[in-house]
Design brief:
With 140 residues, the protein is an all-alpha fold. The protein has eight helices and no strands. Helix 6 runs parallel beside helix 8. The relative contact order is 0.11.
Amino acid sequence: AKGQKWEKAIQLFHEVLQGVLQVDLITYNATMSACSKGGRWEQVLCLFQHMHQRGLQPDIITFNAAISATSKAQQWERARHLLERILRHELQPDEITYSAMISGNSEHHHWERALHQLQEMCDCNLKPDMIAYGAAIHAC
């Protein structure tokens, strides 16, 4: 099942690193996403840092995987810091960015944070979808 094979994703990632293939942003994003789904937020942040050390610039998919992982793990300050870094990288947070933050708050019944993120999403001229609304409702 998805999310339970993060260890295999890491193994494959290391095989690529040791081989002759060039690791690219897509490889990092896929590995980070697998680790995020597996609840391995520390591994996601390690990959994020490793990517930066190799000179690759994160995109919104990279940030969304990291925000999803940290938010679900109740690492609110880290998730918020990542959201701020999106803006510093001159990227635009998207619906997935805010939905990940809202969902993480929802899973732990932090309704005030979830509603704040929903409002912030609207303030950024993003239209919340059913995932964002559903997560916010669940938080309440």
